[in-house]
Amino acid sequence: MLALGLLYVLLILVQVLICNHIMLFNVAVPFIYIYFIIRLPVGMSQTWVFTLAFLMGAVIDIFSDTPGVNALAATLLAAVKTPVFYAYVPRDDKTKRITPAISTVGWQNYSKYTLTMSALFCLMVFSIEFFSFASIEMILLLTACSSVLTFALILAVDSLMSVDKSIMA
Prior knowledge:
Layout: H1 2-17, H2 34-39, H3 46-64, H4 69-88, H5 102-105, H6 107-130, H7 136-168
Helix pairs in contact: 1-3, 3-4, 4-6, 6-7
């Protein structure tokens, strides 16, 4: 549980201090903090998942001056977490308490799961920000580019987390 708390604080700091100041080619924004929501154990109480996601989004909103955008998108992401995970990973007794990671579900399943979660989150954030579908092309462009950047960063962080465990073992 201590590791989860440490990851929570670390990802908030990285998002607020570094990622919030990055916008590649005016279309790609990294949302590294959603790695925390993606990484939460599948069997964790939904109440805790929603609470942690909302609080993390709210903290990001406070530091990013985006009133409610990240809190809403993070909470919605928490709502779809389990169904999206089971769309790619077979539901059985082994996966009831699994922590999604490359090392636990495999490269392909984790990549599909992470890319889907990144795309859904980015689509929610930009749809909420624009609050209109008048510029749907821009929403889709921002979503696609930000999803790919976020996906790549999450895979990199997860790879580092897996290396950390193998070194410690």
